[in-house]
Amino acid sequence: MSLSFKLFRLQQIDTTLDKAQARISEIDRLLADDLEIRLAQGRSDSAQKKIFEAEKNLRFAEANVKEQRIKIERSQAALYGGKIINPKELQDLQHESEALKRYLATLEDLQLEAMLVLDEAESVFKDAEEKREATGLQVAVQKDQLTLEKSELVRELEVNEFERTAAISSIDDPVLRQYEKMRKLKNGIAVARIADKTCAACGSTLTAATFSSAKIPTKITRCNACGRILYPG
Question: Are residues 149 and 192 located together in one domain of the fold?
Answer without folding.
Answer: no
